Amino acid sequence: MPSCQKCQAEFQIHDDEHAFLKKITFKFGDKSYNPPEPIYCPECRMVIRTCHRKEWNFHKNKCAITGKDLISLYATEPLWGKPYTVYAEDIWVGDDLDPMKYGREFNFSCSFFEQFAELLRHVPRRSMCTVDNQNSEFTTGAGYCKNCYLINSSENCEDCYYGKLFQDCSDCIDCSYIYNCELCYESFFLQRCYHCLYLLHSQNCQDCHFSTNLNACKNCCLCSNLHQKEYHFRNEPLSKEEYEAKVKEFMGSHEKMNKMREELMEIYETQVHKYSNIANSKNCTGDHIENSKNCFDCYDMTESEDCKYVQVGFQVKDNYDCSNMYIKPELCYEVLGTIEVFNCAYSIFVFNSQNMLYCDYCYHCNDCFGCSGLTRKKFCIFNKQYSEDEYNELVPKIIEHMQANNEWGKFFLPEYAPFGYNESVAQEYVPLTKEEAKEKGYLWRELKDDIPQVEKTIPADQLPDRVEDIPDDVLNWAITSQKSGRPYQILKPELAFYRGQNLPLPRLHPDERYSRRLELRNPRKLWDRKCDKCEKEVSSTYHPSRSEKIYCEQCYLTEIY
């Protein structure tokens, strides 16, 4: 059994992984290459990949063409090398960018990764990573969204604010991992829900609040593990009139709703939990998987098949060791952040492309190697155009050079990442201190908040309890979090949402609200344990030492149906 060259832990390479590595093939004339066996364990592979992805903590920067101020993923002070050249979104997709002029020949006396890092310092970077968004300047890792603000990992959404992994949603605020939802607030992992507040791990629900693990329920509050129920309060049936009177008692008041949330957390900790959140799926392990088959050690997957070690995927097929894969990516290995790609490996943010190796920020491209910032190109190496024959002759030489230098088969190196570990997605999955991150070879950035230019500042705990007592000019205030003192502001459409839904203003900074929701998810790691009722062996994200009651599928269904 091999040992990880990063953390020294032993790990297995299973037969299905060997078969997949033979299946994904890159052909260049009469030569073909497959990815080699991994030298890092699955967790370290995931961490190395996701330290190159950033979803929060944006920076003020300037467009290199217009000089106008903009919000960007990239800071003006680099963690290594010279600063990135950053273009505004509209400039980057316009006619002013010619990434081919930065093309260069491959230098066989230098390492691939050193040369590629140097190329990235010259090719202009898109300020945010988006695809065809409208009026959604402060979003990244998002596509086809309209009127959205500070959401990421999202597609086909409208009027959504503050959260992660919104898919086909509208009018939702402060949610994470929600699909086909509308008018939801402070909710976590929902499927097809309407007008739900503080709802967790539920599907097909309407008007359900402060509840968890509901299926096909309506008008339920402070409930758990219910199926096809209506007008239930603390899991007890009430008449319509009794139920509405109960709910009316707390709606609109921050103090009362906060107590309801505390009660929800008590319910969540003491209820029976299914070993894993897997629904309508066959032969899958991991967590938060729906309508999928043959997905192993995968997380947050929908409508996917034949995958392994994938985190966050929608309509994914034949992907191993990938993260944030959306809308029909197929046959990918060690890829981060894609939409509709085929046969790609060791790449970041490639969209609508195929046969891509070691590429970054490329759109509608085919057969490119070591390129960045290209659109509608093929047979390019280091942003330099070649004929098909030249391409097929040169790429094998580069691969063999990488093999000789122990580079072929490695993802982009952490020391060349554009972000500090603490501002990357890796920190969410495997939290590290500054000392731990640096010891492991990752970068680190000291973060600070910009103070908004506002008329006045008010501590969150001095806000009126009820939203109807909030004046219109709150839009001109900075509110300081009651937890950390970090400043934040309320947007005009956000205030309209709170008033329309009779919700008090939030008392925490958006980052803190997100972190609080993140605490509701288990580690992306599997342990062998036994069902607490029948002692059947299960593979679960609940560590055996945890106190929750964990049931296998059959015992759980018997419990709630």
Helix-strand blueprint:
Layout: H1 15-23, E1 26-28, E2 31-33, H2 42-50, E3 59-62, E4 69-72, E5 86-87, H3 89-92, H4 112-122, E6 125-126, E7 130-131, E8 140-143, E9 149-155, E10 161-167, E11 173-179, E12 188-191, E13 197-203, E14 209-215, E15 218-221, E16 224-227, E17 230-233, E18 236-237, H5 240-250, H6 254-270, E19 272-274, E20 278-279, E21 286-290, E22 293-296, E23 298-302, E24 305-314, E25 317-326, E26 330-339, E27 342-351, E28 354-357, E29 360-363, E30 366-369, E31 378-381, E32 384-385, H7 388-404, H8 426-429, H9 434-439, E33 456-459, E34 477-480, E35 487-488, H10 492-501, H11 510-518, E36 527-530, E37 537-540, E38 549-551, H12 553-560
Parallel strand pairs: 5-6, 7-8, 8-9, 9-10, 10-11, 11-12, 12-13, 13-14, 14-16, 15-17, 19-38, 20-21, 21-23, 22-24, 23-24, 24-25, 25-26, 26-27, 27-28, 27-29, 28-30, 30-31, 33-34
Antiparallel strand pairs: 1-2, 3-4, 17-18, 31-32, 34-35, 36-37
Report the radius of gyration as a whole number of Å: 24 Å
Number of helices: 12
What would the average pLDDT be, to the nearest integer?
96
Biggest sheet details: 13 strands, mixed
- Provide the low-confidence segments as ranges: none
User: What would you call the structural class?
Assistant: alpha/beta
